[in-house]
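Why predict the complex rather than its parts? Because the way molecules touch one another can change local conformation, and only a joint prediction can capture that. The input here totals 1037 residues.
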Amino acid sequence: MPHGIETSLIERITPMVRDLCTQRARALPDLHYADVRVEVTEGKYAGAENGESKSSGDDYAFAFGIRVLAGSRMRAPGYFGRGLGAADVPRLGRILEEGLLAAYRRAMANAEMKAEIKGKFGVLGDALDDTRLHPVQVRQEIVPAVFEVDPRTVALGDMQGFTTDVSRRVAASHRAVSYNYISTLTQLSRELFASSEGALIDQSFALTQGMCYVVATGADNSQELYDVVGHQRGWEILARGVSEPMIELAPFPEFSLAMAADAAELSAAPALVAPPGEVTVVTDPHYNTLLSHEIVGHPVELDRGLKMETAYAGRSWLLRGLDDTQLGKRIASPLVTAFSDPSLPGYGHYAYDHEGTPARRVVHIDRGVFTGFMNSRQTAAVFGGDPNGHWKATDASLVPLVRMSTTVFAGGQHDAGDLIRDVDRGYYLVGHRTPSIAESRENFRISARKVYEIRGGRIGQLYRDGGIMADSRDFLMHVDGVGRDFRLYPIPNCGKGQPMQTRKLGNGGPTLRSRAILTGGA
Amino acid sequence: MDLTRAVREALARLSERPGVREVEVFAALNRSLLTRLNYTSHIPCNGVEEPKSTEMSGLGVHAVFDGPDGKPLVGFGSEPSDLTTDGALRALDKARQAAVHDPEFRSLPRPGPARRALVDYHDPQLMDISDLALVEAGWKVITGGLRAFMASSRLAALVPGEADLKRLGLILGGDVTIEQTRIAIASTAMPEPQPDDSTFMSASITAMVEARDAKGSGWSVCMRLEHFTDEAGGEAAANAVAAIDGARVPTGDYTIVFGPQPVADLCNNLIIPSCQAGSFYASSTPFLGQLDRMVAAPALSIYDHGAMPGLAGSRGITCEGLPTGRTDLIRDGRLVGLLSHWYETQRLLHDLRAREKLGIDPAAAVAALTPRNGFRYDGAGRSFEATAGTSASNVIVEGADPVSLDELIARVRDGLYVGRIWYTYPINGLRAGDFTCTVVGDSFIIRDGRITAPLLANTIRINDNVTRLLGAIVGTTKDARGTMVWGADEVVYAPSIAVTGVHADAIAGFAEGLD
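Output of the joint prediction:
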């Protein structure tokens, strides 16, 4: 046991965690529901900068989180979370019970105060309601991880060498490359979920990622590019790349060198000077990965719809009130279909979410018509509909919230090349860079890694520092071409929640053609 | 837990281990308590949605080892939940296993001439707050907001009777946060253990009258539990009511008075990252090669001060054991200093391209690169699981010849007052300086030197460049207010600032026509 804790610990503590939920918790007065999540991760990482090793590590993470719904006059939630270490294992039963009791005390106090405030504020108190969870099928299952090269078997020295070599090659690849930071990560996680309803789910996940950040300096500009290769697999994906029906990722050295080449090429390219008014734009699958994330994925999170994110990540233009939504209404061209699907491969894959709901595909836009949200048991109980398994946290000690699994634009019927060849004057956006989205996701500006002019159906001049801006519905309604070239990509850093939870998930889509306002430098 | 004793004993034990040239032991006990709030008059809700907490304790060990060829190897390891010497030894073993040769590493942090200014500044009551008090704090803020809504004659006039108030879509969202942080550090170069305990409490609330697309904010930051009130809820609700009947403005260039929150947001996402040593090392700052040159209007000064008594971002020492203090970043428009930590300062001063990156001889930049900002913030306190990076503490923004807000608005005559922006990012990379954001509330239209109407939320997107903005500042107010933006480490104390020629695009016209 080189670092103190192994994922096999989950097997040893499963009976204890089950009994805590089904016996100790159920015995507490006015407790209506409790669940416990425990997570163990064994991981290794290495970092290199400008061809020199900078850091590495081989360690574990161990944490738990507890939710309780309780109360006599009303029902309310209470939570407790904590990071753990190897020294806690001998007294884990007592620590978990103390956590359960802390969450219970908070829930009971919360319920009592909710009842008191409800009575004090007349009509405005009416909205204060019992906390309910939509019923789900109670499951007990063990879900194994998928990998060829077990993350635990990778030698840290080999990782350091590999990572430093990639950094060295990137540094030497072009004169314009002035800085690079390369990191690699491979880990195995095991998550246990148990509830007072009897659920007992043990899921394992492998995850491997290579990150490349490169800066190329031109005469009057620096081009900073950042992207990852990643999958829920073992170390093999960095050495060999990924070639699956929906995922094509180059081996990490080639991927990083291609980014360096892009940065160098862009640093010598002219800055885009945007013409006034809307133009025809063709956006590639990598660009649409971020577009699907921002203008489909986020606004269809039901916690946003129900205003629970008003102060943070924002609301959704798709839902103003329980009886005032865009459900059943056209919000996109008939060519556009979009959905979230936890069964797709990549960062967004899982079998159960963090409240034990079996995860399933939910279609958000069906041939242009808005059809539904991703949800949790609590939000489904408020809004209606069956839970579809999208309540996730980045760490067992943190409270889950509605998150994307893999949210995508569905593939279409067009040849991607034809979508460009049919354009007399327009722009082709390749690769996503940085997003900025309006509060209810009604408008976006997203910059592209590269912007090419299209003249007479042919790709022409390359520009740096460009992107597009549009109202989300207008962009979706103006889509007049959807490619067959559907691709999935990893998104490594989606931020949501308070405190902020930065989550890895999947997005994707095919090439799209629509209309938008081109943006350049200010 | 006695963190001081833990680091003293760990340092003594680890220093004796074979092959250890230098070692630093950092112990931390962090607890973050938060009640997340969600009240919606038109949707069933909990009011206090998440009374919760996370906590973690442990040791981090940063060590320099003898390498096989005489070159030093540097490694870091940590062990959670174990402050004994056994835990320290496990962390050292991890550090040894992970150690690499980094040619830019020169040493672990060394003491300088400055001395610690801030001691015994935390609130013991906040350090020991109960579960009940945590839940009460959340309901206190909700109650403040509901009272303000109920008392509003303006809201009452919008509906036929009190029973219809809930149909206005009254929203109160946000949180009450309490941070309890205890650390201690000792190292070969600074063997006397240094403890540092800190606490703070904040409330950040967004209120809406959603049926009228009116949004307002309220927030408070305090250092003592006894100073905590329901004001954030009441303020947010009152500001939401004041935003009713908002109007659109067309695409154009405006003189904009940015309020404290937008100034904090611009600092957090653009200005502070541009003033960090690491951004100069990576050639990714818009101020590349401009140290000791004018980068803003002469009226503007910005400094970071981590040792100012009574401010929420103040700490006694950095997470490297060095004294916190004042670092001037922009003084009278001139870039005079950078935020940094020990490693970043050492490598930038010895970088062969330092003169090109900084714009001055590195020997002349030693004072400008004093490492007062080496922190280990991870969103839940001062983490023992990582080495220090650069974070701001209290960022203070000041203008020359400040005036009252009314006078500044009168001087602007025609333009906008923008009180809250969102999703502010350097859209074409940090060095380009281009940024974009949307205006999400607390904003007004200025005509003939006075505020004439609220600006409808979510109807303009600002597209501009931060270097241009800094050069186009034409006035500031006297009143500064502390603001923490979502996910930020630092607290920004900023006045309102007027900037000419800010480009704004009208957006989302379709949203008002939705059926």
